[in-house]
Amino acid sequence: MLTTPEITPATPTIAPALSEQETITHVLKELEDLKNIVLIENNTGDWSITHPMLFGFILTTVAKLSVPLACRMPDHFFIDFKGIQSEQASAHIMTNGTTQLHVGSELIRKSLTEEDNLSLRSLQWTLAHELSHLCDPKFKLSAKLYLVRDFLNKFGLYFATFSLAQMVFQNTGHQAFFAACGFIILNKIFTIALHRNYEYTADKLSLQAMPDITLSEIENTLTSMQQAVKPLCLTEPTNAINMLIGGCFPSLKSKKLYKKIVLLSFFSLHPSISKRLEYLKKLNG
Ligand SMILES: [Zn+2]
Hints:
Elements: H1 20-41, H2 47-50, H3 52-69, E1 76-80, E2 89-93, E3 99-104, H4 105-113, H5 120-135, H6 137-144, H7 146-170, H8 174-209, H9 215-229, H10 237-243, H11 255-265, H12 273-284
Parallel strand pairs: 1-3
Antiparallel strand pairs: 2-3
Helix pairs in contact: 1-3, 1-4, 3-5, 3-8, 4-5, 5-8, 5-9, 7-8, 8-12, 9-12
The protein binds zinc ion (ZN).
């Protein structure tokens, strides 16, 4: 049996602190490694242990932002490697009350390599915005009411389907069908208004976390993220309409398609970048 002799060094050895550039290099290396593991090997281990530099970097960045926001740290951190989610960040409150912060791998990589007009401050602001969602009492209440919202959505659809069937097969239920359609439309409008309100609130709170951020930095960040999502609009249309900051569609050349798509962008849960900037401008006086 091998035993390790106890050693008491005369001078304790302290690991030299890494410079910011060295830390970024390590973080990028671990991010690439984790990407290969997730996408190629399909291994789902605990990345906070297997990739400590990357985890430590996200954790300390969020911890610094949580202080001025007086916001509790998220319970779980995720790195997203696929599709639209890899280009953005998002915050979630689960039905059991736990909170999740998701950060896109491409958003991290581009921010640390200063690609596509992004920078470390872009990443910090994006995380501040997402963390702000988790601190927003209205967002928390909405998460608590998830089952009610889900019931209302399903109720509208069942009501409409049932009354449509009555209308087609028994020639009755016309009024019920129109009532159901009205209910679905009102429910949708209310949901959109509520979500857009969350965005304005999170933008406002993000200024509390980063008071020195400029409007042009925010514009650059949002525009760059929107540009990155554009090519994914056709492959992930539902996510794109819901997640997209404003609308990726106006870049399409076809005028007919463009008109349809502009109509769809009214259903986006996020306000347009110009509206968000206008709101922040007003806040700044
Ligand atoms: Zn948001």
